[in-house]
Recover the amino acids of this structure.
């Protein structure tokens, strides 16, 4: 990154080398070349830009609002069982790495990269001379119209901003979250020609996220609006309104046992685009309970094997999750 902008957008053939801790050793960076050796300058730059925007711990959370704050790309890690943790940060001039842990490998609650290693790392950066940030590698980027909501390449119906992106970014997919939706004149319901005349239908570009993604997005974007429901009497696919949020990942669940030897309950959660909607829960064909606003249920699985969890809201919308209990 440092050499690219100052040497006519050229790379050095030996820029990537094993660590050398000897103070008097001389680095042989090789010859200049226009061909990248490992990673392109733009991919490195935008990777560092993404890591720079992470929320910093403690009093550093508001660093963006201070002109004196230093731009640092950083990352953390925590071992299984909180046995040790690390944090590493990069500026244009310095790399600072911090490891924390016990010599015997014993785990401790709260021993994480963010809470234990990162604060030390930022304190060390405060002791070092301030460093400016990397310059954007213009010759390795192109201008492109990007969707201002999703960050993907803009489609014809997206609100756009013009940004410089890596050239390879032009090969990525266009935004598929903006959809052309047909609404009635009030904008309250989705309609189509099966239930409304063409004169009373207005096409509108809407930013539409799946329910689970929308639930997380709306927590930080209060202006997000859900897709209007299909008006009664209209033919078409109904709006997807629910999604399971926990457990995530693999549908094979190993149920742990408590101190008493009894199998623990498994918590299932879902999100609904209408928080006030009543949701009725079923395990296989057995009714469990009804929830509202906070949609979660603890299920005791008496038998291993295949099970189906079903959730039905008060409008008749239904989702199912099939799990294997071991």
């Amino acid at each position: 990154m440092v050499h690219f902008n100052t040497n006519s957008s050229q790379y050095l053939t030996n820029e990537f080398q094993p660590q050398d801790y000897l103070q008097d050793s001389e680095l042989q960076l090789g010859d200049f070349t226009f061909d990248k050796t490992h990673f392109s300058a733009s991919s490195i730059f935008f990777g560092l830009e993404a890591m720079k925007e992470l929320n910093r711990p403690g009093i550093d959370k508001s660093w963006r609002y201070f002109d004196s704050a230093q731009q640092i790309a950083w990352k953390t890690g925590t071992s299984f069982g909180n046995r040790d943790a690390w944090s590493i940060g990069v500026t244009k001039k310095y790399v600072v790495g911090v490891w924390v842990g016990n010599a015997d490998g014993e785990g401790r609650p709260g021993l994480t990269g963010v809470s234990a290693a990162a604060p030390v790392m930022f304190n060390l950066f405060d002791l070092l001379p301030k460093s400016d940030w990397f310059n954007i590698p213009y010759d390795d980027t192109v201008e492109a119209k990007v969707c201002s909501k999703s960050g993907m390449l803009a489609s014809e119906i997206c609100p756009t901003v013009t940004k410089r992106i890596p050239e390879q970014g032009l090969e990525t997919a266009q935004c598929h979250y903006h959809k052309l939706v047909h609404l009635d004149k009030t904008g309250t319901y989705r309609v189509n020609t099966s239930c409304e005349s063409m004169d009373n239908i207005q096409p509108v570009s809407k930013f539409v996220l799946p329910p689970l993604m929308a639930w997380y997005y709306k927590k930080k974007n209060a202006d997000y609006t859900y897709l209007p429901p299909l008006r009664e009497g209209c033919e078409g696919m109904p709006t997807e309104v629910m999604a399971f949020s926990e457990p995530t990942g693999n549908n094979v669940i190993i149920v742990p046992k408590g101190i008493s030897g009894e199998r623990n309950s498994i918590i299932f959660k879902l999100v609904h685009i209408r928080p006030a909607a009543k949701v009725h829960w079923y395990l296989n064909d057995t009714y469990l309970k009804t929830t509202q606003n906070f949609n979660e249920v603890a299920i005791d699985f008496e038998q291993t094997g295949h099970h189906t969890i079903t959730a039905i809201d008060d409008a008749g919308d239904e989702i199912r999750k099939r799990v294997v209990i071991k």
